[in-house]
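Whiteboard transcription, Tuesday session. T.W. wrote the structure tokens on the left side:
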């Protein structure tokens, strides 16, 4: 058997020890990323009770790495965390409501709990929910998502 070169040994060691390594294309199966089509679908997704990671992106070369990381993370945390991708040029109204100027950015929507009316009278047929929104400010990797979920107490596995 042929001895590995120094470069091959170094890459093998890097792949096995680096916590930020996302790897070369892996066979992760069918895509688990949900593509945004309407606000109604987004609200229904929130009502399911799972945390939802929303990536607000543009279609450009800078988002290719983000797309690969999102695919890997969605495969790892499925079904307890849902991943949604919004292409902002297609849905500018939804993206503008987030009031961000720099793309891409990621936010986590979770804890849809029934909100109380605090003594106000209102239509009993309308259900109100309180959703916590957290800006993702960790390393863009599967490890970064795992640490973010741990830090904010999001249950990322069943």
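and on the right, the sequence the group agreed on:
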């Amino acid at each position: 058997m042929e001895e590995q070169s120094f470069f091959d040994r170094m890459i093998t060691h890097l792949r096995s020890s680096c916590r930020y390594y996302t790897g070369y294309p892996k066979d992760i199966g069918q895509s688990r990323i949900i593509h945004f089509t309407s606000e109604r679908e987004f609200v229904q997704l929130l009502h399911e009770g799972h945390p939802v990671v929303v990536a607000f992106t543009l279609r450009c070369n800078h988002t290719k790495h983000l797309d690969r990381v999102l695919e890997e993370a969605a495969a790892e945390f499925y079904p307890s965390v849902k991943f949604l991708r919004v292409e902002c040029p297609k849905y500018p109204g939804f993206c503008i409501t987030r009031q961000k100027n720099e793309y891409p950015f990621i936010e986590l929507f979770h804890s849809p709990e029934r909100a109380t009316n605090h003594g106000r009278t209102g239509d009993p047929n309308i259900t109100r929910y309180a959703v916590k929104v957290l800006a993702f400010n960790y390393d863009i990797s599967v490890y970064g998502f795992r640490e973010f979920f741990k830090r904010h107490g999001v249950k990322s596995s069943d």
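Someone added at the bottom: The first strand starts at residue 33 and ends at 35.
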